[in-house]
C-alpha cells in the first residue's frame, strides 16, 4: 500500500470514529473539515453500550487494535482532560458448567471476590472473570469532546449538513464532497459515516461491504449504586450510567428486566424507561474496513463494528497514515482491498 499523504481532509461522519479522525488529524497539523447530517454522536454512537476493553482473547485482523484500546483512551484522557470515561473494570460470568479461561488482562475470581466487587448480587457465581482495566464511556459526551478538540486545532465543522456524494476532478482524483448546502473541497475524503458509508462509496463506484446490524439498548431506572462494575452475563451487558439509571445491551426488554431484578438485591423497583435500536455498521467479515481505496485516489474508508472501543486507536493511526504518510502495521489486516 502506497502512503496517502494529505494536508487537506474532509471527514464525513461526526460519530465517534469520524470525530476521532478529525481531532487527531487537526492536532497533527492538517486542514480538516468535518461534516455530518446531524449532531456529534447522534447516530449509532448514541446507542452504543460503549464498553472499552483490551481484555480477553484478542484474535483476528483487528486484534492489535483491540489490545491497545484502553491505553489509547488513557492517552486521550491526558490530551483532553475531562472526557467522560469510567474505569470501573468488568465482571463476566458465563453459564454454569463453563470452564473458566482467563484471557489477557483478566483474572479468575471466586464468589467472595464477586460479592466484594458487586455487593448487590444475590447469588455470586462460583467464579467470574475480572478485568480491572476495562471501562466505559459516555459515547456522545466523548464524541462532543473530540469535536471540540478538533475545533481547538482549527478544524471546520459542518453539522446538520447531509453529504449527498463524493466529488472527483477531471483526472479522477478526490476533490471533496457534495452536500445539501453546497460543495466542500478537499484532496482527501475520509468516509466514516457508519452504514451510510456504503452509499457514499457507491457514488464513486466503490463497493464498501457494510450492512446495518440492529443493536438493542435498554435504559432502566435503578437505585443508586446497584451496579458498580460493567457486568456481562448470559442475560445482559449491564452498567450504571447515573445514580438512578442503568443501560443494558440484550435481546429482549422483558427478559432483561426480569434478569436484572432476579440478579441483584434491591432491584425490585427497577423499571424499563426506554428502548432504542442502534444500527451498527457491520462489515461483511466482522472486521474493520480501514484504509485507502486504490481505484479512487484520495478516498479513505474507516468503518467498523465496536467503533467506540476502537475509536481512540483508529483516529490516531488513520491520522498518522494520512498526515504523516506512515503505513501503520496495526491496520494491515483491515484494508478495503481484502474484499
UniProtKB/TrEMBL annotation:
Ranges where the FAD dependent oxidoreductase domain occurs: 8-320
One Gene Ontology term of the molecular function aspect: oxidoreductase activity
Gene Ontology, cellular component aspect: cytoplasm
Pfam families: DAO
Keywords (A to Z) from UniProt: Oxidoreductase
Xref: InterPro entries: FAD-dep_OxRdtase, FAD/NAD-bd_sf
Keyword presence, Oxidoreductase: yes
Record keyword Oxidoreductase present: yes
Protein name: FAD dependent oxidoreductase domain-containing protein
Lineage, opening ranks: Bacteria, Bacillati, Actinomycetota, Actinomycetes, Kitasatosporales
